[in-house]
Amino acid sequence: MRTFVVYLLFCLLVGCGQPDQVATTQPTLGLILSNPTATPVAISPSAAPASGAINPTQAVASTPSISADDWQSQYRAWIEEARQTHPYSESSEVMWNVMICESSGNPTIQGPGGLTGLFQYQPSTWAGTWNPYRDQPITDARAQIFATAKAWHDGNQQWWGVCL
């Protein structure tokens, strides 16, 4: 935890290397120094297909909330699942660290210029044809994780700049 706090302070002091203007089609740093206030959502068992596999494009907006103690475990599980669905070269821990850098794990966080969610997508980027999860709300934590895995699978890691 101490290392993470030192990293956050470092980023705050040096401005995290963000350019003066950020392209509106790419996610960027949405650093939050407080704990997430939104409660992440989970897939309810009834939403899973009979085979036990979960379709990443399923809506999760009406599902029960994850407890505050379980959101980290749930996000890590989704990151692993997304990495299997959309393989990319970085470790799952790297994706976790980018998510924490961007949003502190808050799926509904609003950053500067309309950046939204765990990985701070612009609505126009989220709605792009590259994103098979664009029919889900931009604040859907699971959809953001899977969309980011897809973006990384496609070689778009540079969208996250200094957080990566």
Task: Describe the 3D structure.
The protein starts with a helix and ends in an 11-residue tail after the last helix. It is mainly α. It is 35% helix and 0% strand. It has a domain of 103 residues: Lysozyme (Orthogonal Bundle), CATH 1.10.530.10. It is globular, with a radius of gyration of 15 Å. About 37% of the residues have low confidence. The longest helix has 15 residues.
Features:
164 residues; mainly alpha; Lysozyme; Lysozyme-like_dom_sf; signal; Transglycosylase SLT domain-containing protein
Task: Write a short abstract of this structure.
The protein has 164 residues and is mainly alpha-helical. It has helices spanning 2-14, 71-85, 92-103, 123-126, 141-153.
CATH fold group of the domain at 25-32 and 70-164:
Lysozyme
Question: Under the CATH scheme, which class of the domain at 25-32 and 70-164?
Answer: Mainly Alpha
> Radius of gyration over alpha carbons?
15 Å
Uncertain segments of ≥5 residues (pLDDT<50)? 5-64
> Mind describing the biggest β-sheet?
none
Secondary structure category: mainly alpha
Globally, the shape reads globular
CATH architecture classification of the domain at 25-32 and 70-164 = Orthogonal Bundle
The overall pLDDT average reads 74
Indicate the percent of residues in helices.
25-40%
Number of helices: 5
SS strand fraction = under 5%
**Number of distinct beta strands:** 0
Series of H and E elements: HHHHH
Span between termini: 19 Å
Keywords: Signal
Protein name: Transglycosylase SLT domain-containing protein
Signal peptide: 1-22
InterPro entries: Lysozyme-like_dom_sf
